Amino acid sequence: MRLCNDNKDKTNHISNTSAPKHHYLFILAIILILAIFSNIFFATKYYNAKKEISELQKHSEEKQKVLTSSVELKYQSLYKEMYSKYPDHFDKRHGKTLYLTFDDGPSVFTDSILKTLKEKNIKATFFVTGVTLKNPENKERLRLIAKAGHTIGLHTNCHIYRQIYSSVEDYLADFYFIWVKVKDITGIEPKIFRFPGGSINNYNANIYQQLIAEMTRRGFVYYDWNASGNDTVIKTATSSDIYNYCTTTKNRNNIILLLHDSNKKAEIVLPKVIDFYIKNGYEILPLTENVKPITWNYR
Where do runs of H (alpha helix) occur along 187-221? Predict the structure, then answer.
């Protein structure tokens, strides 16, 4: 009887020790299955994410291709002869320098301005407009400006802001017209210019970066200003007011002064303005493409 009981006890012991092994195998199988499904899940997520990124990149490349081919390249191919050579460097000036600039001419006031400049032995810069050159007398005035050794820059042909700044193509068309006109009249190919209303204004807010980039790419140098007589901005300004506006920036080393060859006010104050700056130690020079531009900052 004892022998039978011993065998029974051994059987129960074997049965009890094998049970935990089955549990371990079951848990291990569950872990492996979870690991497999996890890998499948994350692999699928990775594949989908990679596919989405690839599609976004493709869309971005297609968008960029559209921008460069149908917009930029289109206007870059216009007026292939309208190029200049952008300066390799700008001259460094030490001391105080004033650059007198006159926009919107030639006009009936040009004669008096040229007379004053000759008497004072001063060279200036004239940013001219095409609309005034319909008059044969103004064509001759433009020739006189060139003959006297003043710098001729381009301003605009029509001076209608909404038309000029409606697109890059429209700006280039306007610029090309005045560029050809000045070249035909004087034999000079102007290398500098001034944007109507300045390089950044309410009319070109959407395209000024493209305009600046394109005109720079074509080799032209543009100039804004850091002093103004406000001779056209403030309609009620007297000659005394304009003189005061012109002389408030006397402490700057380099001054580009904006006046207009389109009204009598600037013509009247010009001799006094020149005398003031000479008395305060300024050298008065014309702009050239090698003068470091004064431009307005933009993003």
Answer: 208-217
Residue type, 204: N
Its pTM stands at 0.76
Please check whether residue 93 is in contact with residue 290, taking contact to mean a CB–CB distance below 8 angstroms.
no
Query: Angle, nearest 10°, between helix axes 136-147 and 168-186?
Result: 70
The rounded distance, in Å, linking the Cα atoms of 153 and 165 is 19
Three-class secondary structure of residue 158 per DSSP: coil
| Number of other CB atoms surrounding residue 82 within 10 Å | 17
3-state secondary structure the chain: CHHHHHHHHHHHHHHHHHHHHHHHHHHHHHHHHHHHHHHHHHHHHHHHHHHHHHHHHHHHHHHHHHHHHHHHHHHHCCCCCCCCCCCCCCECCCCCEEEEEEEEECCCCHHHHHHHHHHCCCCCEEEEECHHHHCHHHHHHHHHHHHCCCEEEEEECCCCHHHHCCCHHHHHHHHHHHHHHHHHHHCCCCCEECCCCCCCCCCCCCCHHHHHHHHHHCCCEECCCCEECCCCCCCCCCHHHHHHHHHCCCCCCEEEEEEECCCHHHHHHHHHHHHHHHHCCCEECCCCCCECCCCCCCC
Tell me: the pLDDT tens digits for 63-75? 444 444 444 569 9
How far is the CA of 264 from the CAs of 109, 139, 173, 242, 270, in angstroms?
7, 20, 31, 11, 10
Neighbours of 115 (CB within 10 A): 13
Report pLDDT digits (tens) over 85-95.
999 999 988 89
Tokens of 207: 């395209």
